[in-house]
Amino acid sequence: MIDRRMIPQLGEEISRLAYGGMRFPKNGDEVDVDEAVKLLRKAYEMGVNYFDTAVVYHKGESEKIFGKAFEIYDRSTYYLADKMSIWVCNSEQEMKDLFERQLKTLKTDYIDFYLVHSLNKDNYKKAKEFHCIEFLQEMKRQGKIKHLGFSFHDTYPVFKQILDEYDWEFAQIQLNYLDWQNQGAEQLYRELEKRNIPCMVMEPVRGGYLATLDEERAKPFLDLEPNRSIASWAIRWVSSLPQVAVVLSGMSDMAQLEDNVSLLTNFEPMNEQELAAVAQVVESIRKVNDIPCTGCRYCMDCPMGVDIPEIFAAYSRLKIFGREKSFVNDYEEIMKNGNGAEHCVRCMACASHCPQSIAIPDKLAMIHSLYQEKKAELEAAEQQ
Hints:
Layout: E1 4-7, E2 12-15, E3 17-20, E4 26-27, E5 30-31, H1 33-45, E6 50-52, H2 61-70, E7 79-84, H3 92-106, E8 111-119, H4 121-129, H5 132-141, E9 145-152, H6 156-165, E10 170-174, H7 179-182, H8 185-195, E11 199-202, H9 219-224, H10 230-239, E12 244-249, H11 254-263, H12 272-286, H13 308-321, H14 324-336, H15 360-383
Parallel strand pairs: 3-6, 3-12, 6-7, 7-8, 8-9, 9-10, 10-11, 11-12
Antiparallel strand pairs: 1-2, 4-5
Helix pairs in contact: 1-2, 2-3, 13-14, 13-15, 14-15
């Protein structure tokens, strides 16, 4: 049976591993319902007791699968996590109707862990306009929600604002050994640590990327533990962080489930030798990026509003993962918020504070030109 821990702030005993319902196996374009139900029930039998879904997962099928999978079990023996995906709602009433519909779909009277889903600057603004958090707090008072939190995808200042403005019982962030410094995840984690708020972790293997490292980059892992899966290093690293309450994994087959359960059974945090191996792998990955930004934000705030760390982070993702369309979309989102590199006036205030001595204005200009180039290439490809 997988390890479970009492989380004092929540008063709940939670398995170290949570099952995320976003990547179920498929038959062609459709989710394989029978296989998904089988996986969830197998996880339950192996001791996993935290199961996470959302209305937008698998085009609404994920919640239905959860309802079917767990209808045979005593409701008090497992935790359900679900989310308010505010962007699918066009009105406050629609938001309220969605919540009631989720209860029916999940075949339950209450949801243990309920999250305001994927908060960023825009989604948070909409959530406030619809009085979303106040509504969910009322649902908590009525016993329909046990614990209220949020999941997050934005910058540290937005994260801090959300934490300051409401009382949250937990927060879910993207956290893995690559994003720790490369995308500023450490800053988010430290903020939760400072406030003693339990941290639920999503994307521990970076959307599968950290499970598919080539032999050259994974050599420090293979030298130390040749029979251990590459993915297991990512899961064990994040599970070793003391503020982490649970690690979510979207397991799409039995082999992934069994591997994750085995490495979080009789779990011991990583030792110094293992942590050193992780540091070596991170360094080998980061070498493909020619901007050594660590996301420390010493360069901020820019007097012209340029979000330097976010621009560098978008560029870093392009260099590491090679996803040009995602880079264009990420950069356009930054520009939409008025924080693009086109506003840089080369005042040099940022460069004088950078611990890495990055020629920030030059790099910003390069990234903006690269964005224009990649955007033009993608548009030309679409017209062919």
